[in-house]
Amino acid sequence: MRWVLRLGVFRLGSTSVACSPCFGEFAYVDYSATSHALVIRSGARSINITSMTPAGFQADNAAYVGTVLSPGRTMTLNTTSLSATDNPNLLTFVYIDTDSGLSHTDTASLRV
């Protein structure tokens, strides 16, 4: 089976996608359970991430909270705090579109 997702201006083709559904403003790039790293790329607009959940996930990735991300920026996120027993883990990003000033929330599940 082949999964093909279209997320904004990004296209992802893979035999396995760890998040479902993937984020609206972010494109899934890669995930490694061994290194506890989730790599995602921001979309076509500048955004300011105001919070992430769960709380441990936000604490592990505090450097991105309050940061304005330029379009197409790749983020490598630490997933150490996520639990394999809580699969799938729900990850939520709250952010402000810096062009419009509107707040948005994107949620996706991730199997660790």
Keywords:
112 residues; mainly beta; 5% helix
How would you describe the overall organization of this protein?
The chain is mostly beta strands. 5% of the residues lie in helices and 50% in strands. It contains one helix and ten strands; from the N terminus they run ββββββαββββ. It has a five-stranded antiparallel sheet with strand order 3-10-9-6-7. A three-stranded antiparallel sheet has the order 4-5-8, with no helix packed on it. A two-stranded antiparallel sheet has the order 1-2. Strand 9 and strand 10 form a beta hairpin. It is globular and about 40 Å long. Residues 1-17 have low confidence and may be disordered.
Q: How helical, in percent, are the residues?
A: under 10%
Low-confidence stretches: 1-17
Alpha carbon gyration radius: 13 Å
Name the helix and strand elements from N-terminus to C-terminus, one letter apiece: EEEEEEHEEEE
Q: How confident is the prediction overall: mean pLDDT?
A: 79
Q: Which range does the strand content fall in?
A: over 45%
The SS-based structural class is mainly beta
Large-scale geometry: globular
* Sequence of strands across the biggest β-sheet: 3-10-9-6-7
Report the total helices.
1
The overall strand count is 10
**What composes the largest sheet?**
5 strands, antiparallel
